[in-house]
Every structure is written in C-alpha cells, then in structure tokens.
Amino acid sequence: MKLSSRRRVVVEAGGSQGWHDLLGLEGQAICVEKFGASASAQELFEHFGITREAVAEVARALV
C-alpha cells in the first residue's frame, strides 16, 4: 500500500479505532462502531451497512 495514497477504503467488522492513521486524507471506513449486537454475521453486516453494495458505493465516490 502506497503511503502517499490519499483515498483508501477500510472494511472492518469491528471498530474503526486504529484505522484512521492508515486511511489517507480522503479515506473512508466502513465499520461497526457498536458492541453487543447478536445475530448471524450476514444479518449484522446488513444492519450495520457492511455490504458489497456499500463498499462499492464508497469506493466509487472516492474515484
């Protein structure tokens, strides 16, 4: 990963803490910032917006 890259997308099933230093100046994080939800992974990802569509939308917006 080039350190000079300004636009990065991070997808994390946990919190975004620790990722912000690596995102670049215009990067975006798609993460779960809440603790304690209980359901299947697919249901939780959809609930928190961690989907292929969401990642593609964020990536397209950065181009």
Automatic annotation (TrEMBL):
Pfam families: Transketolase_C_1 (PF22613). SUPFAM superfamilies: TK C-terminal domain-like. Keywords: Magnesium, Metal-binding. Signal peptide: none annotated. InterPro entries: Transketo_C/PFOR_II, Transketolase-like_C_2, Transketolase_fam. The keyword Magnesium applies. Residues 5-51 form the Transketolase-like C-terminal domain. It comes from the Bacteria. This is Transketolase. It comes from Streptomyces evansiae.
